[in-house]
Design a protein that fits this description.
mainly beta, twelve-stranded mixed sheet, eleven-stranded parallel sheet, 2 helices, 35 strands
Amino acid sequence: RYESNSSYFFNIAGGTVVTENIVLDGNSPYVPRTKTSGAMFYVSKGGSLTTKAGTVVQHVRSNTHSVVYLASTAGVTTTATIEDLTVMGLDTYSTSSTAYSGASIFYVTGAGQCILTVSGGTFTDNEARLLYVIGAGAHQVNINSCTFSNNHLGYSGAVFAVYNSADSAAEIQFHGGTFANNRTTGSNATLGGGGIGYVQSGATVRLNGGSFTGNSSAAGAKYDGIFLKPYNKNLTAHVYLGQLNQELTVWTNQTSKTVNNAWMVLEAPLTQNVTLNDSYKVPETIVAKGTDTYTLTESDLAKLIPGDDTIAFYLDAENNAIRIRTVE
């Protein structure tokens, strides 16, 4: 990529591009640190991208989208099918102070529908998160059995960030995969919440299996996992837990002492401990819910660990929920 090319490398506006056995180099080590560029692939207006084995993207510097930027307008579907992609050596240059800033390998936005399917692939040693989703569109994201390891970012959500200022129909699912030793280097909750993920919208985020180990936040251990922070009092933030293969930390950041709008949803029995911290620790606050097809049990309650000794939890069987209770 020439230094003068600060826009997209491929602009797929309604067409189809397929890549295989190709190395795309953004040339970032050889341009000034403050110079950023757009994504390698910008896909819009119903366009379609497929990457096949042997596709490598490296050395892209961005402040938002670095590899695949999917955008859609109302009534239009944009698609990316990513198979065995290798991404390395990305970096971020950003002066923003918002939690969800920084480079993202996959950036999904728009009022229409974007369909992103990532199968396999290796994403290592990048200054970028894997996924960022924004917008009220009915986006469908499936991350299947990829390896995302040894990446870092100075903003919230080291693996994924979901942001919206309105109700969102987006669904994001993680199926298997390895997510190891990723970290957010932000030193406070605003810029370092979520060593795994940061959710600030009503989108549906599901974790189904996979290995999430060694992920961390420089803001502190209580922020190492999933950070749930609703945009405002009218929206909710939650994460759906299906199969959980290791212990997890969750922070529920309620909008206020009187608004309870952040919680986990359990779709299956907890098999690992989940350590939960809550922003206000108000008694009767719901921190976990069951579903129409799964009823919470005392076993689930036993595996939900308070983040400090000032709170405890109890099972509200009548409402299929787990709530905070006062410690006497």
